[in-house]
Amino acid sequence: MSSRRNRARQSGSSRITDEQINDLVSKLQSVLPEAGIRRNDRASAAKVLQETCNYIRSLHREVDDLSERLSKLLEESSSDQAAIIRSLLM
Amino acid sequence: MIMAFHFLGALSHIQKTTTHSTFVFRCHRIRCAAYTSMALSTGAHSAWSRALLRQKPRRGSLRKRTVILQRPRKRAVRLEEDCQDGADVLRRLVPGCDGMDSAELLDETADYIRCLEEQVSLMRSIVNVISLNFNPKS
Fold first, then answer.
1. Higher-confidence position of B121 and A76
2. Which PANTHER family does the record match to this protein (chain A) (predicted)?
3. Torsion of the alpha carbons at B69, B70, B74 and B78, rounded to the nearest 10
4. Domain locations in chain B?
5. Which fold has domain A2-89?
6. What ipTM is given for this predicted complex?
7. Which residues of B touch A86 (CB under 8 A)?
8. Which residues, 6 or more positions from A83, have their beta carbon under 8 angstroms from its beta carbon?
9. How far from each other are the two terminal CA atoms of chain A, in whole angstroms?
10. What value does the mean pLDDT take over residues B90-117?
11. Interval B12-33 mean pLDDT
């Protein structure tokens, strides 16, 4: 009996935050690449967070990789390339 | 657009000043320039951009020019147990989000990801442009 009351009280307070969480999680999901996560599955909030972490890590790796490629290109290129970069700025 | 301006300016400067530097050092400079231009284009309204800019000493440091009104204190959003680990990892991955409550954290994360994607796309375009114009020496 008391457990039922406790459960009722808990679900009362978390109903507000559940909605907030769902909104935020779906907002997050909208920036993730298509990963085949079903949208309205409540239990997938944890999955969305995990996918998000993986995605951020892969973006960091891409930045690292592109920095290396740029570094190599800047090193190998002639001074004409500096002109190209400057022309991209104009 | 702003991001491109900052990043290209930084690249140009890096190329001029690192002709005798090591590959690793130049790489590191480019990487830093990438994150800085991301943060500069976003400005001071995101926690992650402020955190990135605080890491890098700059002349005339970017300060919050507008006063951000105190948001009314909401009850902190608690995620379920199985989400807490994910949220903690996220707090470590996104700069400036230590101790942030979950609602703000998810907001910052979405913003950070969008900016990261823009930066990656910008860097790819630059690599393509330089590669197309580059004639190998041999």
1. B121
2. TRANSCRIPTION FACTOR ILI6, TRANSCRIPTION FACTOR PRE
3. 100
4. 2-58+109-134
5. MYOD Basic-Helix-Loop-Helix Domain, subunit B (4.10.280)
6. 0.79
7. 12
8. none
9. 74
10. 89
11. 89
Which residue type, as a one-letter code, is found at position A26?
S
Only one residue has tokens 């991001």, namely: B3
DSSP for A9-77, written as a single string? HHHHHHHHHHHHHHHHHHHHHHHS------TT-GGGHHHHHHHHHHHHHHHHHHHHHHHHHHHHHHHHS
Distance of CA A37 to the CA centre of its chain: 14
B33 burial via Cβ count (<10 Å: 0-12, 13-18, 19+): buried
Closest residue of chain B to A57, computed from CA coordinates: B93
Asked whether the beta carbons of residue B113 and residue A53 sit closer than 8 angstroms, the reply is no
Residues 14-73 of A with CB under 8 A from B: 14, 16-17, 20-21, 24-25, 27-28, 30-32, 45-46, 49-50, 52-53, 55-57, 59-60, 62-64, 66-73
B38 interface with A at CB cutoff 8 Å: no
CA distance A14 to A45: 15
Q: Is A60 exposed, middle or buried (0-12, 13-18, 19+ CB in 10 A)?
A: middle
3-state secondary structure of A4: helix
Average of per-residue pLDDT values in chain A: 72
Chain B interface mutation, best of A48, A72, A73, highest count of B Cβ atoms under 10 Å: A73
Q: Which pair of structure tokens corresponds to residue B137?
A: 């020496």
